[in-house]
Every structure is written in structure tokens, then in C-alpha cells.
Design brief:
It comes from Thiomicrorhabdus immobilis. By secondary structure, the protein is of the alpha+beta class. It is built from twelve helices and seven strands.
């Protein structure tokens, strides 16, 4: 498998943001994109936790198998109702101290407020759980608004560089949902930002090729359209991003993910 490229990640971010702005559920979108996330991260499971005022909530968890959801079902628990006080407290301390992520060899911090230590240990031993990596998610005002975590089983090992790229993508995607005044996430995007306009399918393909430094003639050949048609689509993309050149476009698209 090839390494994750910045262009790939930018394209994925654009796709997800476009779906969100069209009104689709963030959980449904990420479940639909789970194959991509697992392939690029190398993780066996991952979850998104968000802060609603002062309460940390597990929004959803994705996994290659169904072992985590099976664990919850066995003890009559639901992901949305898990108590995450320990996870919040331990990681808030680390992130406030400037750590970019935390790594543990147990999933205990995620579950200890809801399941006994003995049951957690049995789960970890049964599935050869070896690492959990947690990253903070920040708002536009650089306030912590949640976190994402990745779990690894068996011989799987975390690659921090790849996980950091996924973290930045998810952070870019969820920021517009957060209301700084109420410190709450909304069900629909509350900030229509010019940095993330709604593009058509063809405009997304052309944007990706522009970011890859393809010429208009190369794009026209690859997409089987005329150069004039390419120019028309580029004009629409520039208008939606409110830019006047390829450089301005690249800077504006890259700002959210690559900074």
C-alpha cells in the first residue's frame, strides 16, 4: 500500500465536508468512509469523542470487527451513554501540558467508569489489545472540543505520522459543528465557511488534479473533456473559494488540514 499523501487527505476532507454541508449525518459519513480510515491509519478500531459543555461523550466508534460493540452489548451498555470521566481527566491534563497525543497499552481509560478492571483485562487478553493512542481535537479558537482514539490489536503497531494526518482531517471536518458560545456541538453544521464550499462531483475531481499541479490540457485529456470546459469548472471553483489563482486556491484549501 502506498503512503498517505497530502493530496489524498485533502480530497477526502473535501468529500466529507461536502456531504456534511448537504445535511448528511457525521456518524453515517464516517462509517461509510471507515475502510479508508482503517487503511490509512493501520488501526483496528477508532472512535470520536466530543465535549458537550463539560461532558465528554463517545459519538461513535468504528472497528474492523465487532468486538467492542460486542463487549458493550454483553454488559448492556451503549456507546453514547458510556461515562468517560477518567478518559477526559487524564488526557486533559496531558494535552494542557502540551502533549500532542497520549499512548497507553490498555483501553482501561475508555472503559473503567463503566466496566470493571477485571472485565477490561479479560477483553484485552482475549483480543490481544496492545495500544490505544488518543489525540486532542481543537476548535478554531484552539480550545479542546473532544478527542479521537485509535486501538491496535495483535501485531498492529501505531504509526504516529499517519494517525496525525487522520486527526487533522477529522479536526478540520468537525470544527464547523462547534458553537464557541454554548460550548456545544450542533446536529447540523452551524458555520457555513467559505473555506469549505459545496462542490459538484466533477469540480472535486478537477480540484484534486489542480492541487496535484496538473495542467488544463492534462486534466482535459484525463477527464475526456475540452480545455474550455476545464477552464469553466476552474472558474466556478475559484468563485466558490473566493480566490483568483491556483496558488491562492492551494493555500486556502491547505490551511485547514496542513497547518
Amino acid at each position: 500500500m502506498q503512503d498517505v499523501t497530502d493530496i489524498d487527505m485533502l480530497q477526502q476532507t473535501i468529500n466529507i465536508q461536502s456531504c456534511l454541508m448537504a445535511g448528511h449525518s457525521i456518524e453515517a459519513i464516517f462509517r461509510n468512509e471507515s475502510h479508508y480510515i482503517f487503511e490509512e491509519s493501520g488501526a483496528d478500531m477508532g472512535g470520536l469523542c466530543i465535549l458537550q459543555k463539560d461532558s465528554l461523550q463517545l459519538e461513535f466508534i468504528l472497528e474492523k470487527s465487532n468486538i467492542f460493540h460486542g463487549l458493550l452489548k454483553r454488559y448492556h451498555l451503549q456507546s453514547h451513554t458510556l461515562v468517560l470521566d477518567t478518559l477526559k481527566k487524564k488526557n486533559a491534563k496531558a494535552f494542557t501540558a502540551g502533549e500532542e497525543y497520549t499512548v497507553t497499552d490498555s483501553i482501561e481509560d475508555l472503559l473503567i467508569d463503566s466496566i470493571s478492571k477485571q472485565k477490561i483485562k479479560h477483553f484485552e487478553e482475549s483480543h490481544a489489545f496492545n495500544h490505544m493512542v488518543v489525540f486532542p481535537l481543537f476548535s478554531f479558537e484552539q480550545q479542546i472540543i473532544g478527542c479521537i482514539f485509535f486501538g491496535f490489536l495483535g501485531a498492529s503497531q501505531p504509526e504516529i505520522e499517519k494517525l496525525t494526518k487522520i486527526k487533522k482531517m477529522i479536526e478540520t471536518v468537525i470544527r464547523p459543528f462547534h458553537d464557541e458560545k454554548t460550548r456545544m456541538f450542533q446536529g447540523k453544521c452551524i458555520q457555513i465557511n467559505n473555506d469549505i464550499p459545496l462542490l459538484t462531483a466533477k469540480e472535486k475531481h478537477i480540484l484534486k488534479k489542480l492541487l496535484a499541479a496538473k495542467s488544463y490540457s492534462d486534466i482535459a485529456k484525463e477527464m475526456h473533456i475540452s480545455v474550455n470546459t476545464v477552464k469553466t469548472h476552474v472558474k466556478h471553483i475559484y468563485a466558490k473559494y473566493e480566490v483568483n489563482s491556483k496558488l491562492e486556491l492551494a493555500n486556502k484549501v491547505n490551511a485547514g488540514l496542513l497547518s
